[in-house]
Write a structure and sequence with these properties.
255 residues, alpha/beta, seven-stranded parallel sheet, 8 helices, 45% helix, globular, SDR_fam, KR_dom
C-alpha cells in the first residue's frame, strides 16, 4: 500500500475500466482507500473482490460486468456509475489486452479486436464522461498506455499501435477540452508484474534482462502505479494536461 494521501479524492466519483484484476484492482483499492466513490467494469465476475474491498476498507465499489468492446454496454455502465455516485470527475481507462501475436499472421478480425479493446473503448469512454465533467466544472481523465511502443518492442504490433494512438488521443482531447477544465493525461507503466504476467511471460531470463535495462533495480508491482494515477486525478496536478507520464523504473527516458 502507498501511504500518500490526496485529500481532494475523498468522495470523488471515479470510474475505472478493468478495475477487478491486475493493475485495475490495485487502482480500485487505492482510490477506495482515499475515500473515493468507485465504479468499475470488467468482463469477469468481480463480486468476491467487491466483498473483499468492503470488508477490508469499509468502502464498497460498484461493479458492473461489461465487455468494453460493446460500446453501448460501456456507455450504459458509465451512466450507471454517474447515477450511483454523481457525475464522474475521474475516468481511468485501464483495461487492455496485450496478447502476443506475429505480424505476418494477423488477420483483419484480430486487428479489429485489438483496436476495439485497446483504443476504441478509450475514445468512447472519454466521450461519455465529457458532459458530466463539464457540468461538474471540470474533471480528469487518465488513459493507460505502455512504454512498449516507445522502444519499439516486438511481439504485439497491433497493441503497440494502439498504445501510440492513445497518446495522440490524449493530446487532442486535452487541447479540445482544456477550456472546460477537463485534464487528459496518459500514464505509461513499464513491466508491471501482475499475476497474468507472472503466469504467462515472466520467466527468470526475461525478468533479469528487463531489470538490467531499468535504472532502478526493483521489479514493478501494481501498487507502484496507483499513486501516479491518483496524482493525475487530484488537484495536485491541476496544471498538467496532455502529458504522458512514465512509471517504469527508468527504462525509457523522455524530454
Amino acid at each position: 500500500m502507498n501511504d500518500v494521501t490526496f485529500h481532494d479524492l475523498k468522495e470523488k466519483s471515479v470510474f475505472i475500466t478493468g478495475g477487478g484484476s491486475g493493475i485495475g484492482a490495485a487502482l480500485t483499492k487505492g482510490f477506495l482507500q482515499q475515500g473515493a466513490k468507485v465504479a468499475f467494469v470488467g468482463r469477469s465476475d468481480a463480486s468476491d473482490f467487491v466483498d473483499q474491498m468492503e470488508a477490508e476498507i469499509g468502502n464498497k465499489p460498484l461493479f458492473i460486468q461489461c465487455d468494453i468492446t460493446d460500446i453501448q454496454a460501456l456507455k450504459a455502465a458509465i451512466a450507471q456509475g454517474a447515477k450511483a455516485h454523481g457525475p464522474i470527475t475521474a475516468l481511468i481507462n485501464n483495461a487492455a489486452n496485450d496478447q502476443r501475436h506475429d505480424t505476418l499472421t494477423v488477420d483483419e478480425a484480430f486487428w479489429d479486436w485489438s483496436q476495439a479493446i485497446n483504443l476504441k473503448a478509450y475514445f468512447f469512454a472519454c466521450q461519455s464522461v465529457i458532459e458530466g465533467m463539464r457540468a461538474a466544472g471540470g474533471g480528469a481523465i487518465v488513459n493507460f498506455t505502455s512504454i512498449s511502443y516507445m522502444f519499439g518492442d516486438t511481439g504485439y504490433p497491433a497493441y503497440t499501435a494502439a498504445n501510440s494512438g492513445i497518446n495522440g488521443l490524449t493530446r487532442s482531447l486535452a487541447r479540445e477540452f482544456g477550456p472546460d477544465k477537463i485534464r487528459v493525461n496518459a500514464l505509461a507503466p513499464g513491466w508491471v508484474l501482475t499475476q497474468k504476467q507472472l503466469d504467462m511471460w515472466a520467466d527468470p531470463a526475461s525478468l533479469a534482462a528487463h531489470l538490467d535495462r531499468q535504472c532502478l533495480k526493483d521489479h514493478l508491482a501494481p501498487d507502484d502505479i496507483v499513486a501516479s494515477a491518483q496524482f493525475l486525478t487530484s488537484n495536485a496536478s491541476r496544471m498538467m494536461t496532455g502529458q504522458s507520464v512514465v512509471v517504469d523504473g527508468g527504462v525509457v527516458v523522455t524530454g
